[in-house]
Amino acid sequence: MVAKRHYKEERTLVIIKPDSIQRSLIGEIISRFERIGLKLIGLKFTVATAKQVEEHYTLDPEWRLVTGEKNISAYKAKGLKHPYEGDPYKVTDFILKKLIKYFTSGPVILSVWQGAHAVAVVRKLVGGTEPLTSDVGTIRGDFVLDSYEMADGDGRAVRNLVHASGSVKEAEAEIKHWFKRAELVSYKHLSESILYDINLDGILE
Ligand code: ADP
Ligand code: MG
After folding, report:
1. CB of 84 within 8 A of CB of 91?
2. For residue 185, is it within any domain?
């Protein structure tokens, strides 16, 4: 039987996209993950290739369908009709081409974060996909102002500053895709004692 991992061992992948770097937001973005208590265990500064980006988005066979449908529903919620309403796969084919152009336009930062509920916590801090409707207080809600309609009208990807894994399964596959095992660092962070220690002994002298 495989032992169930403790919550504090959950990991997620964050990619700081080229627009963040051009907007000088690296520190601002990283500080949000640091200050909530997540531990940085992997970091790379690089220019991604088209192949790496396409593989990244198609690691999950469901991604084409889910993302196409999400885009169509977002149009519906605003009372608009999507030009490819009945065909989510066609929608995502276009999105993928635009995403490759976006992701390879400049350097990106790849990072792996570990901590309790890392996947959900990071998604919460990052906010919804479309900056126009992502919550105030989130990275996408606070620092950028794009929308599906504007990006689609201009034939480009939605510029939303960061990628964050959508589920634990997605995170595991994405981390493997971008990082070798030896590139992830195993170490203790001092804040882990106050976050996870059960007895809280050793504080009082
Ligand atoms: P998320 O990044 O929130 O997980 P998705 O996985 O659905 O979102 O989509 C991946 C990325 O593709 C988005 O972050 C965004 O940059 C881009 N994108 C999604 N939908 C569209 C769209 N309709 N038009 C242009 N770009 C899009
Ligand atoms: Mg996604």
Report:
1. yes
2. no
- Per-residue pLDDT of 85-144, as tens digits, reads 889 999 999 999 999 999 999 999 999 999 999 999 999 999 999 999 999 999 999 999
From the list 6, 56, 117, 163, the catalytic residue is: 163
| Element of type H or E holding 14 | strand 11-16
Examine the pLDDT at 2 and tell me if it is beyond 70.
no
> What's the confidence (pLDDT) of residue 4?
78
**CATH at 153:** 3.30.70.141
Give 55's contacts (C-beta < 8 A, 6+ positions apart).
177
Amino acid symbol at 105: S
- The number of the ligand nearest the C-alpha atom of 144 reads 1
**Residues having CB within 6 Å of any atom of ligand 1:** 67, 70-71, 95, 98-99, 129, 148, 151-152, 157-158, 160, 163, 166
Residue 138 domain boundaries = 7-180
